[in-house]
Amino acid sequence: MLYPLLRPLLFRLDPERAHHWTLGLLDAAQALGLGSLVAPKPPSAPVAAMGLTFPNAVGLAAGLDKNGEHVEALAALGFGFIEVGTVTPRPQPGNPRRRLFRVPQARALINRMGFNNLGVDRLVYNLGRAPYQGILGVNIGKNFDTPNERAAADYVACMRKTYRLASYLVVNISSPNTASLRQLQSGNELDRLLDTLKAEQGELSRSFGRYVPLTVKIAPDLSEEQIDTIAQSLLNHRVDGVIATNTTVSRTGVEGLAHGDEAGGLSGAPLRERSTAVVRRLHAALGERIPIIGVGGILRGEDAVEKIAAGAKLVQLYSGLIYSGPQLVAECVRALAQR
């Protein structure tokens, strides 16, 4: 595979510039039919969850392709499903640059991107042109200047525009980079939001003649009591799935390292244990009633196995791709198949 040769060059570039350059290379490789040089093909290992059949249990987490511009090239890496976004109703630039940092000694990233995206209309346009026919998740959020008391309207607007294209929808209420967003995870606010979104899901299901599962993405920075409360809300509202977890505001594992004190959400290897602990606690509360998608700190096949052993049904990758390369997808699928 080419990535071990390219990584030193990419790590000399600003992380955000390297991100866009890498996606461009993947698009070019896909167009030229050179996918086998980028990543090995994983074995077939279907998994059923949320009424869907996934070709394998390893997906791409939201954040890498915010605007749905590279879905086909990313799918060629062997993912069982692709999640795009986070998308907001209106375009927004996100936070000022620099806003993405590597911490190589800890195999970690810190980002404070701030839901930078071109808006839901552009996402819908891009997805409408993509030939991808696999399982597609659409991660939706609120604009930074929408107050929490009106947040439901932003999520509903995104649901209405993306419903026909999505295999499942993700309600992102856990990014640490949008002020007050995480307050939507708290008891009454979460219940009010889910009331609205589940009602909208029902209306859209009747209008389109198909049911699109609705999932919620939660933070790792929650107490056991908070996790239990969220789990009960998910059960009460018959939410279809939960993604655990987003990035953390903790700096455990990067103390004293270059960029380790940058503001934003920490991902990568230092997040692994905490995200797995959240998966385990959620599973204790939910059992098999609501499937869990485990994400956070997966850099080896063994890390994916750990998430599944803790109770996840599916897993997602992002930061691990930066450090381990595209071959991580097939490595994780093989490890899970052997388990």
Provide tags for this entry:
globular, 339 residues, TIM Barrel, 12 helices, 40% helix, three-stranded antiparallel sheet
Describe it for me?
With 339 residues, this protein is α/β, with parallel strands linked by helices. It has one domain: Aldolase class I (TIM Barrel). The chain has helices at 3-10, 15-31, 35-38, 71-75, 120-129, 151-162, 187-208, 224-236, 272-286, 301-310, 319-324, 327-338, and strands spanning 47-49, 52-54, 58-60, 81-87, 100-103, 108-111, 136-140, 168-172, 214-218, 241-244, 265-268, 292-295, 314-317. The strands form three sheets. Strands 3-4-7-8-9-10-12-13 form an eight-stranded parallel beta barrel, surrounded by five helices. Strands 5-6-11 form a three-stranded antiparallel beta sheet. The protein has a two-stranded antiparallel ribbon with strand order 1-2. β9, α8 and β10 (241-244) form a beta-alpha-beta unit. α7 runs parallel beside α8, α8 packs across α9 and α9 (272-286) packs parallel to α10 (301-310). The longest helix is centred in the middle third of the chain and has 22 residues, at 187-208. It is globular, with a radius of gyration of 18 Å. The protein starts with a helix and ends with a helix. The mean pLDDT is 95.
